[in-house]
Amino acid sequence: MLRGDAEWVVNTRSGPWWRRWGVLAASGARAENAKGEATLAKMLEGRTVLAGVNCLETRKIITTQIINGTAIVYRLRGSPTLYVNRPTAGLDDLNSNNALLVGDTPSLCEGNNLFVGDNGGRGAAAGYTGGVRLGEFIPWAKN
User: What residues are paired with 136 via a beta bridge?
Assistant: First the structure.
């Protein structure tokens, strides 16, 4: 038996490395999701959900808040309503330290793809880090 084979046998006694690391990564992702869901729930306390809309006019958006791995919350000019978008793809790329790159579009619509970019902080060069596909925009009105 070769040295590499012996190390493999030793390492597999407690399970393959990929299985051990996979469990750690999955439990970390679940913890991050739970934290994101709790943050969103707190933000939506005292609000009532309304019928979803397909698009938001970009000129009316005054703030965008990314909730890590969970959702994007939009506030529109002149409205106390929050619009929550849960992307249908790319949730792993949602990070409050990054920026959503919209481009030159008059509206954000369900099914649009947005680039996620590093904001260039801490000396890092700005650049694309992933992307998300927008879902339906769910309005939450203040009670």
Answer: none
User: Are the C-beta atoms of 72 and 95 separated by less than 8 Å?
Assistant: no
E-assigned strands of the chain?
Answer: 47-49, 55-57, 61-67, 71-76, 82-85, 98-101, 107-109, 113-118, 127-133, 137-142
Query: pLDDT tens, position by position, for the chain (143 residues)?
Result: 344 444 334 334 444 433 444 444 444 455 567 888 999 999 999 999 999 999 999 999 999 999 998 999 999 999 999 999 999 998 888 888 788 888 788 999 999 998 888 766 655 556 677 889 999 999 999 98
